[in-house]
Design goal:
heterodimer, A: mainly alpha, about 5% strand, B: two-stranded antiparallel ribbon, 14 helices, about 70% helix
């Protein structure tokens, strides 16, 4: 019996981990290209989660249907933020960028608090308690759907960067900024696009996450930290690394919650981060700087 | 003293500093208890900001987990006091020792393994968060339920056991802040200070001219950790209660670094000015909201965030460097 229990928990962790991975993918893409660490990343996800909750409550719309409009909204949000506020900070030192994004995070957290109050909210879809059974293994339907949606969005993003001309141009910016300027790419616009795409990713992740956890305004910093851990573990700037890191963190969290106590699960996550930073600072799939 | 010497601080700066100190010493006689608590908060943030500034402002190592050292200092001194009756006048030594060990361990691991920049900052966050969750499950000091010190009667001031009136705590903190200021002033003019400056500006160049970069970075981290742990001792006995999420939280680390960055990174007076500006801003917003009858939670912090945004956008080097120029105190370099 215990083996099956562990297997069940680990698979649940894999599914949650894919959603984590998508969230972290946004952070990784932004850092990889714009070279700014988005310290308001978790807050952006919280914003998307509230959007999903509100639309669900008022219009009874399934968060998965809402994914595209919410992604579009977050895209515009990220695009505008990069253009208006972050662009002048690209050449500034890290601590300066950090304070800027912390200020944005403070405004977002407390703006949400003003509008929605401190209480936890959730989305209860009618399939919330359904599950799939494969032999001895039970999988929550919401987790399966969320994980599949996360994979789909991640695949779309991979394809965009690989095949779309704009995606290629963005990669050129990341590889060689000066070269990109020389061949006439509009780097500022591409940076804004990238920040928008990263935000759209985290928006999609928010729509799925809202199926799995309750949302409060204070959730932001926790997920910002979690996204950092994941991208560092996987390799900052590496897209595959973000997904791998998400999987690792999801599984280790789930198992730690079972073996230790649930409240100690993030200790394992941070221990993982410290180990990776010391032994392989560029992350599991990262390239050496 | 060996090493290159700078011109003595301008006479004008000295006079202003003396006036400020005299003002801070006299204020408790005229202000009400609320204002005294605000002044104490300002001094606390100034002190702990100065401690952080040693590491980041002087030596250029960005720590985003400084709440770790504050929390360790607080828990070590409080646990020794509660469990073994060791007065904080002795316990602070143990607090410093533990902070030194942690600072040395993190510094050693990071600098030996070549973790730097954003990665170093995230490593410091990771250690602070790891410790926070560890203390959540550390039952000897109350776990997540909190650790409490007996609140003593306040008819006399006992500096050895740190039991006494708010005025006593205020003057203790004033002495700590002044001492830290003097120490930093001395350091900046010493060989060590110039080595740090060289490392901050260009580590490879510093290495090339023969500075033992590893050693001086370790020194900065350990000194900064030790200074921060004393702030923890103060907090433990001033507040009489400790919660891991409150003292080790990332919010606390952010609070520590806001003052020096807003005030002026790497300057001596920046952390003090930044602490003053931010506390007055926060308290002023609170007062304004109360006067306007706004009870909505979050409004104050939104304004606070907006102000922070504007300061960092338009005064990238902090308030003090531009203010200093206007006051005509710019004669002697980076003071």
């Amino acid at each position: 019996m215990p083996i099956e229990l562990y297997l069940n928990v680990a698979l649940g962790g894999v599914l949650t981990g894919l959603v984590y991975g998508l969230m972290a993918l946004g952070l990784s893409v932004i850092f990889g290209v714009v070279r700014v660490v988005n310290f308001a990343h978790g807050e952006m996800m919280t914003l998307a989660m509230y959007a999903a909750v509100m639309l669900f409550v008022y219009f009874k719309l399934d968060p998965l249907l809402l994914m595209l409009p919410i992604m579009a909204t977050l895209f515009l949000f990220g695009y505008a933020m990069q253009t208006a506020v972050i662009n002048p900070f690209i050449t500034r030192p890290e601590h300066s960028q950090f304070i800027l994004l912390v200020a944005i995070a403070i405004i977002m957290i407390n703006g949400l608090l003003m509008f929605f109050g401190p209480n936890a909210r959730n989305v209860l879809v009618d399939y919330a308690y359904d599950s799939y059974q494969i032999g001895p293994i039970l999988l929550d339907k919401v987790r399966v759907i969320a994980a599949l949606a996360a994979l789909a969005v991640a695949a779309a993003l991979f394809a965009f960067f690989r095949y779309a001309p704009t995606g290629k141009a963005i990669r050129a910016c990341a590889d060689n900024n000066r070269g990109a300027l020389v061949v006439g790419l509009n780097v500022k616009r591409l940076y804004a696009l990238t920040f928008g795409l990263g935000s759209a990713c985290v928006g999609a992740a928010g729509c799925m996450m809202v199926l799995l956890v309750d949302v409060t305004p204070m959730l932001g910093p926790t997920y910002t930290l979690l996204a950092f851990v994941i991208v560092i573990v996987g390799g900052l700037g590496s897209m595959g690394g973000a997904l791998l890191g998400g999987l690792l963190v999801g599984v280790s969290e789930a198992l730690a919650g079972l073996v230790l106590t649930p409240s100690a699960k993030s200790m394992v996550t941070f221990a993982l981060l410290i180990l990776v930073l010391l032994l392989r600072p560029q992350g599991l799939l990262g390239r050496k700087a | 003293m060996s090493g290159p010497r700078r011109a003595a601080p301008g006479g004008r700066a000295r006079v202003l500093l003396g006036l400020l100190l005299a003002l801070l010493m006299l204020l408790p006689f005229v202000v009400n208890p609320y204002l005294l608590s605000v002044l104490t908060l300002i001094l606390y943030l100034a002190y702990v900001g100065q401690a952080w500034n040693v590491m980041m402002g002087f030596a250029g190592q960005l720590s985003l987990g400084h709440s770790l050292y504050v929390g360790l200092g607080a828990y070590v001194s409080a646990a020794l006091f509660v469990h073994y009756g060791v007065p904080p006048a002795l316990g602070f030594l143990a607090a410093i020792l533990v902070a030194l060990v942690f600072g040395a361990a993190i510094g050693f691991l990071a600098f030996r393994f070549g973790v730097s920049g954003v990665y170093f900052a995230l490593l410091t966050i990771a250690f602070a968060e790891f410790t926070r969750i560890g203390f959540d499950h550390f039952d000897w000091v109350g776990g997540s339920g909190g650790f409490f010190l007996k609140v003593a009667q306040r008819d006399y001031n006992d500096l050895v056991n740190l039991r006494g009136s708010p005025e006593m705590f205020y003057y203790l903190l004033l002495a700590m802040t002044a001492g830290c200021f003097l120490l930093c002033h001395r350091l900046m003019q010493s060989r060590i200070g110039f080595y740090w400056l060289a490392i901050r500006e260009d580590q490879e160049a510093a290495q090339a001219v023969g500075i033992d970069v590893f050693r001086y970075k370790m020194l900065a981290v350990m000194l900064s950790a030790a200074l921060a742990s004393l702030a923890g001792v103060f907090t433990a006995f001033f507040n009489n209660n400790l919660f891991p999420f409150q003292i080790f939280g990332i919010e606390k680390s952010i609070e520590i670094i806001l003052g020096p960055i807003i005030g002026g990174l790497g300057t001596l007076f920046g952390p003090i000015l930044g602490a003053f500006v931010l506390t007055v801003l926060a308290e002023g917003l609170r007062g304004t909201m109360e006067a306007l009858g706004v009870v909505l939670p979050g409004v104050k912090q939104v304004f606070y965030g907006i102000c922070l945004l504007f300061v960092i956008m338009f005064l990238p080097h902090g308030i003090w460097p531009s203010l200093r120029r206007r006051l005509g105190l710019d004669s002697d370099g980076r003071r």
